């Protein structure tokens, strides 16, 4: 396996966050349009979804070419986008793409929950090298993040079933990511006492 490579953090953010933003902009441009392909009419939302899938794959391909690595979360999310994007197009039903978000967040909650039942933090398995923290801290963070993912999954179900597509697209593109990033930031700030500092790593000499 090739060694991971460092790239400009701004470029990395553009490659990771750019595709959803492009989807949002395309949707705004064509949301009121109807397109006919092979005798079937498709809404602007579905066409925007079909454009989003290759854009996301291209961005991921560029990210892999530059860094030689993709996270398990990125790969899983890409698979879900492709799968539910295909269902959306095949059945000409935007509900499939909307429920994708619930399933992704629900799966993350389920996986973290399974680890917790085993007395493990699978979150630590993924992030421990980047964020040194004691086991107790990882368990607390994992429980809270598990609850957060479950909450987002339920919230998405309520939103897409009861609100307009415009509202869902805005919350999907901006609301959920901002809420998740803010939640994680606050948790790391609250768990500072569990962080392992360089001084903690130094063993006293006998």
UniProtKB/TrEMBL annotation:
It is found in: Cell inner membrane. The chain crosses the membrane at residues 14-30, 42-66, 73-91, 103-128, 140-162, 174-191. Keywords: Cell inner membrane, Cell membrane, Membrane, Transmembrane, Transmembrane helix. InterPro entries: YciB (IPR006008). It is a multi-pass membrane protein. The keyword rRNA-binding does not apply. The keyword Transmembrane applies. Its main location: membrane. One of its GO terms (cellular component) is plasma membrane. Pfam families: IspA (PF04279). Belongs to the YciB family. Plays a role in cell envelope biogenesis, maintenance of cell envelope integrity and membrane homeostasis. HAMAP family: YciB. This is Inner membrane-spanning protein YciB. It comes from Tateyamaria omphalii. The gene is yciB.
């Amino acid at each position: 396996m090739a060694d991971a490579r460092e790239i400009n953090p701004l470029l990395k953010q553009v490659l990771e966050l750019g595709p959803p933003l492009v989807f949002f902009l395309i949707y705004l441009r064509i949301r009121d349009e109807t397109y006919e392909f092979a005798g079937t009419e498709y809404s602007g939302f579905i066409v925007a979804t079909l454009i989003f899938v290759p854009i996301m794959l291209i961005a991921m391909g560029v990210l892999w070419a530059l860094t030689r690595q993709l996270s398990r979360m990125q790969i899983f999310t890409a698979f879900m986008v492709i799968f539910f994007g295909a269902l959306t197009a095949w059945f000409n039903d935007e509900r499939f793409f909307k429920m994708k978000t619930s399933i992704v967040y629900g799966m993350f909650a389920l996986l973290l929950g399974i680890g917790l039942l085993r007395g493990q933090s699978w979150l630590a398995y993924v992030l421990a090298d980047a964020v040194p923290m004691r086991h107790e801290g990882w368990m607390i963070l994992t429980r809270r993040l598990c609850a957060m993912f479950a909450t987002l999954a339920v919230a998405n179900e309520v939103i897409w079933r009861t609100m307009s597509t415009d509202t869902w697209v805005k919350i999907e593109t901006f609301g959920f990511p901002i809420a998740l990033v803010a939640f994680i930031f606050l948790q790391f700030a609250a768990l500072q006492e569990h962080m392992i500092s360089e001084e903690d790593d130094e063993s006293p000499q006998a």
